[in-house]
Amino acid sequence: MAILNADPVGQSSSNESLFVWIDILGFSDALEDKEQYKKLEEMLKSFVNSFNRIDNCEVKQIGDGVIIILNSLENTKIDIFFKTLATKQLEFIAQHKYFIRGAIALGEKNTEDVLISNGLSRAVKMETRDIDWPIIGINSVVLNEIQIKLTREDNLKLVRSYNNKGEDIYFVDFLQSVEYKKNISFLELCIEKISDHKENYKVRYKYIWLLKYCFQKLPLEINNKIKPELEKQLEGLDIKILNNIIL
Question: Which residue ranges form the domains of the chain, and what is each CATH number?
Answer without folding.
Answer: 16-171 (3.30.70.1230), 178-244 (no CATH)
